[in-house]
Amino acid sequence: MYLSKNDIENLEFTFRINIINSITGIKPANLIGTISDKGITNLAIFSSVVHIGSNPALIGMFSRPMKKVKRNTFSNILKTQFYTINHVNENIYEGAHKTSIKYGKNISEFKECNFEEEYLNNFKAPFVRESNIKIGMKYVEHKDIKINNTVLIIGEVQNITLPDSAVSSTGYINLENSKSTGISGCNTYYAVKKIKDLSYIENELKKK
Ligand SMILES: Cc1cc2nc3c(=O)[nH]c(=O)nc-3n(C[C@H](O)[C@H](O)[C@H](O)COP(=O)(O)O)c2cc1C
Fold it and tell me: Which of 38, 97, 145, 171 has the lowest tally of Cβ within 10 angstroms?
């Protein structure tokens, strides 16, 4: 199949959304936990979580257009500053998917989708007890992306919680051991299978 820009623009609407949404490959599956200034918790699946930098430890994620739909995750983060990122694993992906249903701001997806709120070390935002890898985040800044009204939310890592068995002696996380999942498009979940560790190329160059 070859599709030019013109062909893509003329595709049937749903087909175009699906093919463009999955063309970049596997995206991480994460649940974003927040709490409103009124104390109502919120949980939403996001596939756009991305590493921004290690020092300081920064993570970004894209929030969909704000214009027509109210985005509880983003407004909670702006108001309360703290949020959590929780890996979706193979045991919880169906419930995690349901968090994308538009519940009202007074309804918590934790309850509706059968997840347990967990407040680790008095962190202000709720973690997902059923998740194996959890990151506590503090809002740093956001960038409006004018072309499609999306927002890049950037936060700094405050803490990480994960099983010792999932971390190698050099600090790498084995996502197969943690049963973390990946997403293609908006509906398709993948299990993760490690192929091999290769040497880090920058270190190799230094040896020469
Ligand atoms: C697989 C999947 C991935 C999604 N990824 C994102 C994302 O990266 N950013 C986003 O804003 N919404 C994403 N959504 C949609 C949100 O989960 C959905 O809009 C949810 O209702 C947002 O909840 P909120 O209003 O409580 O923030 C995704 C939905 C699915 C099913």
Answer: 171
Residue 100 Cα to ligand 1 middle (Å) = 5
Cβ atoms of residues 131 and 116 within 8 Å: no
Ranges of each domain in the chain: 24-195
Rounded to the nearest angstrom, the distance between the alpha carbon of 75 and the centre of ligand 1 is: 14
pLDDT tens string, the chain, 208 residues long: the values are 999 999 999 999 999 999 999 999 999 999 999 999 999 999 999 999 999 999 999 999 999 977 777 889 999 999 999 999 999 999 999 999 999 999 988 999 999 999 999 999 999 999 999 999 999 999 999 999 999 999 999 999 999 999 999 999 999 999 999 999 999 999 999 999 999 998 877 765 666 6
76 lines ligand 1 (CB under 6 A): no
Residue 71 Cβ < 6 Å to ligand 1: yes
Closest Cα partner for 187 from 2, 69, 47, 48? 47
